[in-house]
Design a protein that fits this description.
CATH topology of chain A: Arc Repressor Mutant, subunit A
Largest interface: A-B, 61 and 61 residues
Mean pLDDT of chain A: 92
Strand order of the largest sheet of chain A: 1-3-2
Number of strands of chain A: 3
Shape of chain A: globular
CATH architecture of chain A: Orthogonal Bundle
CATH class of chain A: Mainly Alpha
Number of helices of chain A: 6
Structural class of chain A: mainly alpha
Helix content of chain A: 55-70%
Order of helices and strands of chain A: HHEHHEEHH
Distance between the termini of chain A: 45 Å
Strand content of chain A: 5-15%
Oligomer: homodimer
Radius of gyration of chain A: 19 Å
Low-confidence stretches of chain A: none
Chain lengths: ~160, ~160
DNA sequence: TTTCAATAGTTGAAATGTCAATCGTCACGG
DNA sequence: CCGTGACGATTGACATTTCAACTATTGAAA
């Protein structure tokens, strides 16, 4: 058992390397494919689509900029620029928060809801085809990605029910 | 069995949504953490680190720009800009290909090998801690990510041996 | 009250990535 | 040879992301 301890090593062994590379490659290819499909078919990037989805699930008032940033794992600055562009495009509007004048809410416009409705089937198709149908055991994938997320401080996340 | 067919749907059901979100969140958090650690500790981004790794594994002559681009899933244009920056930094050098004068080779300089050696332990530590140690079954993870990659046209990839 | 550290968000500049030409070279059919 | 279309890579303009201030507001302590 001379090499089986979990001590620190300065590099990964061959098999661990392979796990990492496989993970990186799959993720990059998948995100790229989703982004490409959304861009070509409905002229929307994956990051922008993500924001529309979050806002689409929020109530009438939308979300505070900070909440939106956290839920999408964007920096404050990035969310500010991104929402400004979405506002330009007419899909999102910002309203300042009545109870805390530092804050503002972002919410979907009618046109934003239309755009989201247009994009959803494209996203669903690609995820279905290349993520969900590609694996033989979705539950097992879910458990693994949940563990990784938890290790990185992710919230327990919306329970499925 | 009224809803169990694999027909096309226009949106994902709740449980499929959850799989997708968990996958996206884990991947974003992991890549962000690796990038952050590399940036803070050795002042190198994850994309740049990836390129140094590929070049570090290549022979004396390095790799053709196109090969490097493919192995890192970068566009031709992106690889050109990125290598130009790495060359600026003194970690990479370009030499034009003798047998095909359109092409060029990129290879690590001594300084580039040093930089890579400095970065490797940082990368290994974070991947170990948040990917490999976080999951209970690395083989199962590997199988899943391989399937996803294959579904997106990935090469069978370097066999582990 | 007045001060002051902390918070929410924005801003502009620099770095990075994407997109659409473009350049030089190659290979192949006349 | 001489086109001519395909290929490998680069370029510059533009879009996005990051980074480091900065503004305005809040809450709380003196």
């Amino acid at each position: 058992m001379s090499t089986m301890t979990t001590r620190e090593r300065t590099s990964l062994d061959t098999s661990d390397q392979a796990v990492w590379r496989s993970y990186l490659l799959a993720a990059r290819l998948l995100f790229e494919e989703i982004d490409r499909s959304l861009s070509e078919e409905v002229d929307l990037s994956l990051p922008d689509y993500t924001l529309l989805v979050r806002l689409g699930e929020a109530g009438e008032d939308g979300l505070r900029m900070g909440e939106l940033a956290d839920s999408a794992v964007f920096s404050r600055s990035r969310i500010s620029h991104a929402v400004a562009r979405l506002e330009q495009a007419g899909w999102v509007e910002r309203r300042s928060c009545p109870t805390d004048r530092r804050g503002s809410f972002a919410s979907l416009t009618e046109s934003g809801r239309d755009k989201l409705a247009e994009a959803e089937p494209v996203h669903a198709r690609v995820v279905q085809q290349h993520l969900l149908a590609a694996v033989d055991d979705k539950d097992s994938l879910r458990r693994l990605t949940d563990s990784i997320g938890k290790s990185l401080g992710a919230e327990p996340g919306d329970p499925v029910c």
